[in-house]
# Entry
Amino acid sequence: MTRRERAVLALADGRVFEGEPLGARGEAVGEVVFNTAMSGYQEVLTDPSYKGQIVCMTYPHIGNTGVNEEDPESSRPWAEGFVVREASPVASSWRATATLDAYLRGHGIVGIQGIDTRALTRHLRDRGAQEGVISTGDVDPRVVVAKAKASPGLLGRDLVKEVTCPAPYEWRESVWRLGQGYAAPPPARFHVVAYDSGIKRNILRQLVAEGCRLTVVPAFASADEVLALRPDGLFLANGPGDPEGVPYLAEAVRQLTERLPTFGICLGHQILALALGARTFKLPFGHHGVNHPVKDLGTGRVEITSQNHGFAVDPDSCAAAGFEVTHVNLNDGTCEGMRHRSLPVFAVQYHPEASPGPHDSHYLFQRFVELLMQVRGR
# Structure
């Protein structure tokens, strides 16, 4: 009789879940969060915003469509570890090139399956996201819990430096079309510089589709280096961790917002707030999924949005920084969008580019281009 392999997931508060290995063997350390998407696990794994985190998928059956070469949102998976109830051993899709297990193994991502993900999700919902360890080697609960307690956490850490590009580059790929793949860019109307703090590829594609020529720069690029590129506008990307751990980016943004129309998403939304004097705070368990309702206070319209963040902007600090709140999360009332009262600057906390998720919020890329047109016409 073959002995079954064991794996454990231990949380810093002492809760332990036992299951079976998924993907690579070894240990994964990070903040454990849950994602409520039913699909899109490859985009989730390759979103750089998950650097420093172990992701639990709440949908019980993951991996049945395998993985492919078109859906990654970056060059590789960034999640520290992966937790599922049941991973499909078979990839059933005409686009699939590998199974989920093989993909995780190939990229060295340690995972666990066969645990009660509903119980884990309820625990994180009630106790908050916390540090955890997946282990397939030493599975002594006391040892693994001690490692989870010793993990540094996200507060104050600069994870952006680990995901940003090393040098500037041009992006020249537009959105995907069935039967055509990713399209060539349309004629460019504006030149936009995008700070890479962990940028997703579909953000770049959406901007290109709206007629933006894109230069992507590292998160450590100075304001002078950005201005030397003579852009028409500035884009601030998503990214991992605590926005207060990236003061150099906030300082550069502070200098640039008076010179350039600016659009921020997710971490970019938080960096923009800090740059102009507002505050951020850590959410109990964050927002991770593709079904979060957000209300546009200007139109009254409700959008179903894709989200992935563990920090948020303090709405009470916005007015003194010159911002007005434009979007609100209908689940918990947190700030999901803001615009500056006197500068051509706006941002949202959620992901209008989706991947995965609904397309309700694609209009925000058009809004940015309209802002660029308005500023050019002055």
